[in-house]
Amino acid sequence: MLGYLLRRIGLSLITIWAISIISFVIISLPPGDFASSYIERQIGGPQMVGTPTARLIEKQIREQYGLDQPIFVQYIKWAWKVVHLDFGMSLSYGQPVLKVVGERLLMTVILSGSTAVLAWGLAIPIGIFSALRQHKWEDYTVTFIGFIGLAVPDFLLALLLLWFGFRLFPDHSIGGLFSPEYRVAPWSIARVVDLLSHLWLAAFVVGTAGTAALIRVMRANLLDELRKPYVTTARARGLAEWKVVLKYPVRLALNPLVSTMGYLLPFLMSGSIIVSVVLSLPTEGPLLLKSFLAQDMFTASTILLVLASLTVVGTLISDILLGVLDPRIRYVK
Asked: Is residue 127 part of a domain?
């Protein structure tokens, strides 16, 4: 087991390194860079591009941030800083990337964690109930609602909830994770309570599609397990139905759900970008989108590196949980 973990950790580090190269290069592929984008967005618009003043400003910006150097030199310098937990300066904000990203990372983790708990907490019992009531009206109702959840885009659901919220509660703040008076306030019990009062809406919107998909997966896997001979044998021995279902079939039906745990958090973070913009959520999604538009390679590369690290670590955790959950799984040298 120890050797398996060491090999997986080594492969994980290599994977993260490769992803950092790919993401850094891809961000640098579009024409222009942050300097030209800055001129077009901040100083006079597109008509300023190519003028002597614009060329002088571009040259100064490129020299200041090292954008005049070859891409591989920029990556090596950035990677060396990352090894020492220095992610460089955010070109858009003029502050250390770690500070810019760190301000939103906590909110992103809270939202993603709440969404994951909501999705799993609803999907597992509903999936079990739907499988046990196969081809009955309860099963058809759950299936119909699940298909609606998969079909309706998250951002459209967010817009509908915002519209109903403003119509029904015009005096209350619907978007965001905090009321206006708590957005920049220091942490306190009142701020935590205010966060919880806004968090459920964002978690519901972001987790709708994921919950519907997990319900379908749980239902299909449990139906497959319930048809196996060991379940028939358990029933023939006179075990109570709830023991027959929960002791082994549910446990084995959870395997595919656990195997996707590594992709859940990055999926929620990437899938919530448009929702975060619509609901004005202070998470990493809008920051990543703004970094792409501004060609802020250091901020965008850092966020993508965080997503990759979460995916790799989550996959490692899911592999370990699979071994604990299902004794049939063995780690081969």
From this structure: yes
Rounded to whole angstroms, what are the CA distances from 80 to 91, 102, 184?
18, 20, 34
State pLDDT tens for residues 186-220.
Answer: 888 888 888 888 888 888 888 887 788 888 888 88
Average pLDDT of the residues of the chain: 77
Asked whether the beta carbons of 311 and 303 are under 8 A apart, the reply is no
| pLDDT confidence tier of residue 54, bands split at 50, 70 and 90 | low
Whether residue 97 lies inside any domain: the answer is no
Query: Residue 31 phi/psi, 5° resolution?
Result: -60, 145
* Cβ-contact 282, 182 below 8 angstroms: no
Residue 176 backbone zone (phi > 0: left; psi -120 to 50: alpha; other: beta): left
| 89 DSSP 8-state letter | B
Q: What angle do the packed helices 2-28 and 297-325 form, to 10 degrees?
A: 150
What is the C-alpha separation between 198 and 280, in angstroms, rounded? Answer: 12
Using N-to-C axis directions, what is the helix angle for 34-42 and 284-294, rounded to 10°?
90
Residue 65 and residue 61: Cα distance in Å, rounded? 6
Contact call for residues 261 and 321 (beta carbons, < 8 A) = yes
Q: Are 92 and 294 in contact (CB under 8 A)?
A: yes
**Domain count across the chain:** 1
Angle at 189 between CA 187 and CA 195, to 5 degrees: 75
Are 93 and 103 within 8 A, CB to CB? no
Residue 228 Ramachandran class (φ > 0 left, ψ -120 to 50 alpha, else beta): beta
> Which whole number is the average pLDDT over 220-238?
85
Token couple for 257: 């759900």
For tokens 């120890």, the residue is 2
Q: What is the CATH number of the domain that holds 265?
A: 1.10.3720.10
Q: What's the pLDDT tens digit per position in 63-78?
A: 766 767 777 887 888 7
Half-sphere exposure of 20 (CA within 13 A, CB side): 25
Does residue 58 fall inside a structural domain? Answer: no
155-165 tens-digit pLDDT: 888 888 888 87
**In which domain, by residue range, is 181 found?**
105-283
